[in-house]
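The freezer alarm interrupted the setup, so I double-checked each line after restarting. Inputs confirmed:
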Amino acid sequence: MPSTDNTSTPVFNLLNALGHQKVVFCNDPDTGLKAIIAIHNTTLGPALGGTRMWTYKSEQDALTDALRLSKSMTYKAAINGLNLGGGSAVIMGDPRRDKTEAMMRRLGRFIKNLNGEYITAEDMGTNTRDMEYIRMETEHVTGVPETIGGSGDPTPIAAKGVFMGIKASVKEMFGTDTLAGRSVIVQGIGHVGENLVKLLREENTKVYVSDINEERLVQVAKKYGAEAIANNTIFDVPADIYAPCALGATINSRTIDKLQCAIIAGSANNQLEDENIHGHMLLEKGILYAPDYVINAGGLINCYSELMGFSKKRTLQLTENIYNATRNILKLSKAENISTIEAANKIAEKRISDIKKVKSSY
Ligand code: NAD
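Predicted 3D structure, all chains:
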């Protein structure tokens, strides 16, 4: 996935560069909704991806995020064997201050008008309650509360997938997948981050936590016996694993030199600012990068299970399989001396192209 940083690039050039099918700009002055829905690729099935609400500095930043997120959803579904395409929605605004029932329901109306081409779920800045509001307007939403027939909060299963990806990476790097005695920095202890801290501490892993929300930082550190570190010092603390669980693009030319970890494996989407440049830099530096879209697929798997009517046991099996999916990518990366993200892309693109042929054959 090439970088989309060029703010002067015309929109259709961006869509062509990343291979997007459709982008919908949703504007509703009555509710204050300004959202972008990006549909990347629907070869394997309807585009599924979360709704993110964030204080974007500019409309360009919001568009870039929607494009990058939706593309990674296509790859995430493909590599994990799901029959889904990639999509995403972003809302411009502060979730703590600006979000209302009316705004979420208005977004639901826009999603309804897409007739199932896009199905949403929660992401950063949104939660199951918001999904319930969207459900009031459209059926094309997953991750609604269990009490109204959904699969509920997908974040514990998302964290479980990341945990399996960490284990697979530790096995590759250290020869055993036991986490006791290893150290992990979890950057961002929101919904997924907190659940990951819980799983890591249950295996007696030394955990450092950081978050821009000071109150939450103190609370989570105390609850799980983790060590709180200031957000601006995370690269000064040596640890076996760096787990980015907040925003993307934290792996870039400014941070790679500072990294003191052996493994990068976390939940954040699009961790590499530019996957070609930074994927290679990590390969050369000998840092194992567990591709984000592979190991953070637990939430998507949960949503897929909800759509397909799968049992919780099946959801867990599919999520635990992230261990094998990660191992396969790491093996291919080693065998062909390519970056781990290149290896993952190769496997995902092959599945999309194979299924495209199947679908065009009848
Ligand atoms: P969340 O909003 O619950 O948590 C994000 C946390 O990161 C918050 O506590 C926030 O204060 C903190 N944060 C923001 N900027 C930070 C910074 N610069 N440094 C440190 N902390 C910072 O979001 P979430 O649902 O836990 O998702 C976290 C990441 O995982 C996102 O990138 C999301 O796209 C990805 N993800 C989420 C899911 C899911 O099911 N929610 C699934 C897969 C991937």
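Quick read of the result. The chain is about 45% helix and 15% strand.
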